[in-house]
Amino acid sequence: MPPFWIVIRQLVEIEEQMATSKKVITREEWEKRLNDVKIRKEDMNKLVMNFLVTEGYVEAAEKFRMESGTEPDIDLATITDRMAVKKAVQCGNVEDAIEKVNDLNPEILDTNPQLFFHLQQQRLIELIRNGKVEEALEFAQEELAPRGEENQSFLEELERTVALLAFEDVSNCPVGELMDISQRLKTASEVNAAILTSQSHEKDPKLPSLLKMLIWAQNQLDEKAAYPRINDLSNATLEDPTV
Amino acid sequence: MPSATVNNHRPSELLSRLASAEPEVKLRALREVKNQIIGNRTKKLSFIKLGAVPAVAGILADSADDVIDYNNNNCNVNNNINNILVQSAAALGSFACGFDAGVQAVLDAGAFPNLLRLLSNSNQKVVDAGARALRMIYQSKLVPKYDFLQQKNMEFLISLLNSENENVSGLGASIITHSCETSLEQKVLFDAGILRRLNSLLEGGSLSQRYSSLESLASIFKNNSELVSKFAGAEIERPLGSIIDLLKDRYPRTRLLACMCLIVIRNTSPHLLQDIGVKSKLIHILLELLDDPGQVGDEASFAFSSLIAQKEDLQKLALEANAIDKLHHHLQKGSLRPRRYEGILLALADMCSKLESCRSKFLSLQVLNLVTDALTDDSADVRTAACICLKSVTRSIKVCNVGNSFAVLVLIFNANIAYEMPIQNLSAGYFMNEMVVVPLVQLFLDPSTSVQVAALGAISNVVVDFTTHKCIFVQCGGMKQLVQLATSMESAVRSNALWALKNFVFLADNRLKEGVFSELTASLLSSLICDPEPSVQEQALALVRNLVDGCMNSVEFMFAEDGLILGAIGRQLQNASKAEIGIQGMYALCNVASGNEFHKEAVMHQLFPQMVDKNESFMINFLQSNDSQLRTATVWTIVNLTCPSSPGAFGRLVKLRNAGIVSQIKHMVNDPCVDVKFRVRTVLGQSMAFGDN
């Protein structure tokens, strides 16, 4: 069982015990309980490696492999290709990114119309950003309009995107968020996830969801007890229980 | 930065560069073609029209030959060749991806054998590209079936499945999914030990290997209970367990494919997977998968249908799992893709096909309005599905008028006449309004035959109505169109049109019947009774049965044009090809025999024509039939013919006795069918009234 599950289960057990009144658990008591939880070092290492690989930190993963002896569950060379695609989208070189994905595996965009549309949409956004109005219009007509005919929700998104052309100050218009850098990141992470899935790898790292579970469990427990909570997730410091 | 415009990449210009003698130019052009068509159906089509596929296939063929010529002598040249092979295979694969026109073009260009050659290339990227392209092609039914029965083919398949390369082993599984259909093919694959290999791909393989092995497992088991029992029995216990485990998989597609595989196994061997836990798990997972926005969500409803179709227990479980609410919820969202729309409508149709509780849930949620909207959808598949759904729901007896249906039963007993009673759809009056009828009637003229057939099927249930609303149907031209369709070239359309007319005249007043009859004419009706297609014959006879419901005026229909229809019925009964035709024909005569003396004699004439009285009467065969309905219909007719209140009854009884029919009936006093038993006693009672014993 993954270590965080054990912690969460403990939290739930404690919660059950204290269903009636709000109990106070001292730091001492808490730490004693935490010490009872045995977590294997290798499991922690696997979690870290999973995070590095999924997020694409090739060099760190390589170093971590040498230091900890943890084998990644994917060929590290494929990470480099994936990162190149991600980076291209992040820099706005969408056409380049598309070509790279197609070299990696032509099935990804052929069988994933939504992702393909979002990449093309991002291409359109970049054209508009660069002030290439005519090219943008031609591109929307030739490449995107047929996709809109195939799918109603694509059509709506296309209309929203083309609306950018109607405003002088695109960053302050109602659809301005499309021009935002966060839109690029959104598209980039969508491509990243699709490539991971095509390599039979999970598209999200496990670590963030474990942290989310930790926060959820703490919130549940808050209603029942006062205990040494972790507020600072990056350092995992236990706060003194407030009564 | 690469140019973002498409101006200088016009397809025609690209094609000329494909023909370049310069390998570099050629390679770049190939890659560009590939990048333009991936994900873009419109581009695929326009490139196909320009003849790009043969051009690319030609490059592939030349370069595949070059591999042999150079034979690794020159590293650089080889590198170039490999790149060209990879790019051309990828382009061909993309042309074929989810696109039958593309598959056809690739096959026509003769690329298939050259793609196969790539699998034995020493470069893994070339092998990958070849295997991917072939897998795309094998998704289409246009590809000729793989012949598993040839030893060398089986060996090749096994080598594919055993490959370390996941695209190659995936190709092996795709070939099985594509071509394994007959029980012989299934057995050959089973005997070759393919299951073990698929199972190891299932347990230890990558995601895509898992997908393809689940699909192939399903195709090996489909409708082959012998193999399923071998598989689930002693020989290999684990596999079923490992498929069940995959129901919990984190990937929606794996869950869907695991469900589909288990459904195939269950439908093949109903005694397996009876555990209520597994059943409700399947239902819950599939309903949950409907929420998936992609292809998985589209296919989930079809899998759901195959799970619950014809199975009341599962429909009940699904109702408890709020299946109808969930399907309704998806319909409400609107702007659905055709495939998804169709699947949801068909799932609703299957949900409402048997259980009244499901239909009342459907009606209470007012799903009907949404289904009616679908009748005018652009997609023919959606229109068909909407009709099928309406047909299923209108089987409801929920809102039927109890007083009326009781009256019908009494009527049948009193007058000794028989209706082909559409018992299942007495509630149709509820649906008989313009909102449903008008769009349905419009679909009679639909360009798609399957829509026409489905619309006729739905209208058959809708037009059954006791009193008032039939005129709506006549007013909107529905009746005339039904008669028109009864002359269609398609036998399914003819038979369904007659079916609808049969239900339309069910208990209709005489004026409506006259309307139908004058539209149909005796000559058309008699030629339909003699239609080459048995299902059309049956429906035509059933229509006659309902048209002639014992009232003198309607019996007269039979004698129009010198008794053309009656003669046709007699001829069909002489050589009825199946029991259903005998049943409908006998009931038709039975109703005519409830008329006056002249009518009864006319029936006798058909039962004992002068020409063939040397042969044994077909009545004897009917009375000895295994089909209790046929026995019932025949005895009913005899009841009507020998009713003592009519003057000629004794003469007819004598004729029947001489033909050996009365003694046959005496043997039937303890017939296992209650209906037959009672009617036999009526006949014997009547014959005793004439002093017969």
TrEMBL record, chain A:
Q: Which residues form the CTLH domain?
A: 78-135
Pfam families reported for this sequence: CTLH, LisH
Q: InterPro entries from the entry?
A: CRA_dom, CTLH/CRA, CTLH_C, LisH, Ubq-SigPath_Reg
Q: What is this protein called?
A: Glucose-induced degradation protein 8 homolog isoform X1
Species of provenance: Herrania umbratica
Automatic annotation (TrEMBL), chain B:
**GO biological process, alphabetically ordered:** proteasome-mediated ubiquitin-dependent protein catabolic process
Subcellular location per the Swiss-Prot or TrEMBL entry? Cytoplasm; Nucleus
Q: Which SMART domains match?
A: ARM
> What InterPro entries does UniProt report for this protein, alphabetically?
ARM-like, ARM-type_fold, Armadillo, ARMC8/Vid28, HEAT
- Name the SUPFAM superfamilies for this protein: ARM repeat (SSF48371)
Q: Which Gene3D superfamilies match?
A: Leucine-rich Repeat Variant (1.25.10.10)
Q: List, alphabetically, the GO terms of the cellular component aspect.
A: cytoplasm; GID complex; nucleus
Q: Name where it mostly resides.
A: cytoplasm
Q: Which UniProt keyword terms apply here? A: Cytoplasm, Nucleus, Repeat
Provide the protein name: Armadillo repeat-containing protein 8 isoform X1
- Organism of derivation: Herrania umbratica
Lineage runs: Eukaryota, Viridiplantae, Streptophyta, Embryophyta, Tracheophyta
